[in-house]
Amino acid sequence: MNNRFFSALALRNIKSNKTLYIPYLLSSIAIIMMFYLMASLMANQFVQERSSALPTLFSLGVIIIAIFSVIFILYTNSFVIKKRKKEIGLYGILGLEKRHVAKILLFETMFTSVASILTGLSAGLVFGRLFFMLLNYLLKLPTDIGYVIALDPILWTVLLFLAIFAITYIYNVSQFTFANPIKLLKGKTEGEKEPKGSIILFILALVFLGWGYGISLTIPDPISAISKFFLAVFLVIIGTYLLFISGSIFILKALKKNKRIYYRPGAFISISGMLYRMKQNAVGLANICILASMVIIALSTTLMIYVGSEETLENRYPFENNMSLFGDPEQPELIEQQFADLQAHYEQETEKLGLEVTEMEALRFQSIYGSLDNNRFNFTEAFDGLELNVFGQVIPLEDYNGMTGKNIELAEDEALFYHSNGKYTKEELIIGDRLYQLTPIENDFSAETGLTETIVLVVPDMSHIESLMASYKEQFPDAPIVGLSADISWNTTGTDEEKKAYADRIRMQSYSVESARYESRDLQREDWYSTNGGFLFLGIFLGLLFTIGTVLITYFKQVSEGFDDREKFQIMQKVGLDKEMIHDSTKSQIIWMFLLPIVVATIHVIFAYPIVSKLLTLFGITNEKTWLLSFIGVVIAFAAIYWVIYRITSKVYYSIVK
């Protein structure tokens, strides 16, 4: 037998199994196209040079899509090969050796992989310009990103998916290499034994979910959220699988024990059928639930970041112009001189350009690090280790009064006090060698004081700051000292063009100021929209990818269940069960399958809200109402898409069963 015979047989097999192969090929083509588009963005020179955040962002997207591609193609391929076990077993009965069957599968894999890769790349090249137009719109750039066809993304795509399809071939061959033909013939109809409910697994499911939810609900600040987010996600994923595997079995067995419910024809058929293969069903349901959660979180958060771009920009830069000064601890008088001189200088520069300073805020502060123990603040070395207990700022009263417009007076043993989480309620605080009587104040400071546990101490004058740093130096004589810092922020009159030209002038002058950083809201706007638009683009990409995964996993699940149920329902019809009753009994199974994942996914996202909202604080997003509307909108949109999936795949299931 020559290769022409095997290739012809492989093509005939693909055509005869088109119900399975068409969705498999479409899903592979879609994922290949999306991977290529993301890879082409990562390799685009304009994206690389536009913003330092965008290359990292798109690299993350490429990695996520690559990992998902491996998992998803292997998962869908397992459905295809499962339905073909009887056919493969028949080859052995007819006398074909295993090496011959392996060659047939090799040609099938070659045809499907080459067709998928070539079509996916072609679709990526055709729709590439459309996606670049979308990216240009989202980034709001003055000049569009040029769409250039590069060889590197094509090569990455071909190599990745050739490797994935090679793995599917090895898996397919292994399915009949270690099994005899008779067992393969029975493999499709053997089914699974009724799973035994495990109270241990059910308890573990609740423990993992409770642990993941607990991390989200108790997360104190955004910095902690960064380190704990992936742990919480991992715990919830494990808990989801265990919940569907064990919890669903407990529910079904409880229904089975209820004679009033179970001993009715429709309920008897649906409960028995679902319980009989619940282990397989549970994994599919858990996959759909996790994918749905990813879609909702990815789209709602990235949509929120983009919609709130202007708001977050203003939160990040409350003033149009912002100059930060970083003092040298060996020359504390230098920053004092800069602090005074620069305020006068900027007012003069503004007048030279025919503009006016409408508002100016100037603030000196000393950064300290440590922990709160009872009524004492204990110093730790600056940046001591990876974990930061408490970050503190000490501000002179003169600057605080100037910033707030108040006229507060303090005695030598008094201080104003702000605590970011409000848990410190004592009326006094010992810091260094001083005891202060505290008066609580609201957060009149930067929103960044909420990124980690923070205290702000307003002391009577600069001598108190010098005294505190002397105490720190005495405790840590060899440790580096963070010098006194200062912020000067101001707004001016003028048109948008005049303000931008003004910001360019001040930025050029700032290069000559020692240990200083100038930031302008107008100059940062383009980069800000670039980054946030990139997040939205990535969110849409991943949301679309996970939605495709949900659709196709659901489709393959329905097809698989339909073929498994068809022979059973044919037998039931022969013993007198009418088609209407069959339809009613199967409808409850489908509703169970479709409603449960979306309900559990919504619960997951609700519990994820606290930790996600903390992470969004890093982007300057503080408007909970907008975030809630974004979340609700995405849930409704995804539920509508999910309903369409239900309608389509349920018809496929019914057509197979009938």
Keywords:
658 residues, alpha+beta, seven-stranded mixed barrel, 21 helices, elongated, ABC_permease_BceB-typ, membrane, transmembrane
Account of the 3D structure:
The protein folds into three domains: 1-190, no CATH class; 195-321 and 540-658, no CATH class; 328-514, no CATH class. Helix content is 70%, strand content 11%. It has 21 helices and ten strands. It has helices at residues 3-16, 18-43, 45-50, 53-83, 85-93, 98-139, 151-177, 181-190, 199-218, 222-257, 259-262, 265-276, 278-307, 309-316, 332-352, 397-404, 462-475, 496-510, 521-574, 579-617, 624-657; strands at residues 321-326, 357-373, 376-379, 390-396, 414-419, 428-431, 434-440, 454-459, 485-492, 516-520. It has a seven-stranded mixed barrel.
**Major β-sheet strand ordering:** 2-3-6-7-5-8-4
Global structural class: alpha+beta
In DSSP terms, counting alpha (H) and pi (I) runs of 4 or more, how many helices?
A: 21
From the spread of the alpha carbons, the general shape counts as elongated
The domain tally reads 3
Mean pLDDT: 78
Oligomer: single chain
Largest sheet: 7 strands, mixed, barrel
Termini separation: 40 Å
Strands, count: 10
Strand content: 5-15%
Unreliable runs: none
Rounded Rg: 32 Å
Helical content (DSSP H or I, runs of 4+): 55-70%
Question: Short description, anyone?
Answer:
The chain is α+β, with helices and mostly antiparallel strands and 658 residues long. It folds into three domains: 1-190, no CATH class; 195-321 and 540-658, no CATH class; 328-514, no CATH class. Helix content is 70%, strand content 11%.
